[in-house]
Batch of 2 targets.
Target 1
Amino acid sequence: MSSRGLFFLVIFSLSALSGFLAENEEPAGLVMNYYKDTCPQAEDIIKEQVKLLYKRHKNTAFSWLRNIFHDCFVESCDASLLLDSTRRVLSEKETDRSFGMRNFRYIETIKEALERECPGVVSCSDILVLSARDGIVSLGGPYIPLKTGRRDGRKSRADILEQYLPDHNESMSVVLERFANIGIDAPGVVALLGAHSVGRTHCVKLVHRLYPEVDPALNPDHVEHILHKCPDAIPDPKAVQYVRNDRGTPMKLDNNYYRNILDNKGLLIVDHQLATDKRTKPFVKKMAKSQDYFFKEFSRAITILSENNPLTGTQGEIRKQCNLSNKNH
Ligand code: HEM
Ligand SMILES: *[C@@H]1O[C@H](CO)[C@@H](O)[C@H](O)[C@H]1NC(C)=O
Ligand SMILES: *[C@@H]1O[C@H](CO)[C@@H](O)[C@H](O)[C@H]1NC(C)=O
């Protein structure tokens, strides 16, 4: 064979091989800018709505960020989180793990804006993922290019949710194992928990560290503040009592979280363990020093999370309304 022929043969087999790999590595169907032909304005509309909502209610961005964890981590990014309870089925939103989640009605605001422009085209699961991406930017975090093309599930996963979402006091071994199951390693877990650099934690999730005795692992300077915010061992369920996750920069997604947890100011047991467990502590220290490193790992982990087991092609449906599957209309 001539060297030219050999050259083409090599190129041909390389491209066949990479085609083969791509087919097996990519989650089938997810691509960049999936709606470029069917609804070219889709991503701009979402961005615009996220910005408008953020202007009115800053905490919507916290919700978009928490949503991507609670939806994508439970088996699939399929917007099952957004479904309301029906007469027979409990919604994921109403389980204990979803305690404190808010702003779901503003997802409908975004969906309505898209339906006006391109009815029946853009899935609620893509809205959930892209609103998280744009919310992260509102909070001063990195811009993370994310793929689209997800379709919406038809059923609630409330019954299996606890097998996936760790509790506030879960051991680091369980936390690391559950994230490893979807391909997120220790630095990825450390970076994702950096989301607790914004938002709040209600006293019901904290009182076990305060009463009857204060957890000696908590920084005494911080205890004073927490006790002030959570004065009752059994918080009044009607009084919305909570502590801000990061007193220093509560509205910014930044690496202050890592300095806090190294300073024993982590609110949840999992936050505290992240800073003390030998498998995660080195990454906590590195992220406390470098915002760039935090953002790099955070972007990588959010990307993996956002591509967890999506419904694509002809699976699932495109919901008309994000809180209801179409058959329930
Ligand atoms: C081990 C894993 C995790 C546990 C056990 C956990 C648990 C919690 C708990 C108990 C709260 C307080 C809820 C309340 O009282 O209102 C909370 C808040 C929050 N979590 Fe997590 N979380 C975890 C991981 C994550 C991840 C991976 C993200 C996002 C990437 C995230 C984003 C948030 C946000 C943004 C808030 C504040 C929400 C608000 O203020 O509305 N969490 N989390
Ligand atoms: C974690 O906290 C819950 C209450 O929120 C409690 O029922 C459970 O026993 C605790 N688990 C561990 C391992 O301490
Ligand atoms: C779903 O959301 C719509 C629009 O926000 C609301 O009017 C409706 O009551 C919700 N449906 C249920 C079953 O809660």
Target 2
Amino acid sequence: MSAALTARATQVSDAVGRPHAWSKACGVCRRTYDAGQWPRLPSVAMLPVQSVQAHLSVPAAWTVELRQCACGAVLAARV
Ligand SMILES: [Zn+2]
């Protein structure tokens, strides 16, 4: 319950205070990482455009970077 409230408060403050800030949220533990924190997470893999394309039905134009959250979940972000 308190974790859900914290997550909601984080989203609100992000929307209000940093409207254009890049951030990535973990779907498992709800931690969020901004553009400065993301590169410090352990890198799991970089998926090149050709690899991403295999999973999409529309043209892919980005590389997907996989990094490990502090909780152990793997997060993906376009780079
Ligand atoms: Zn996590």
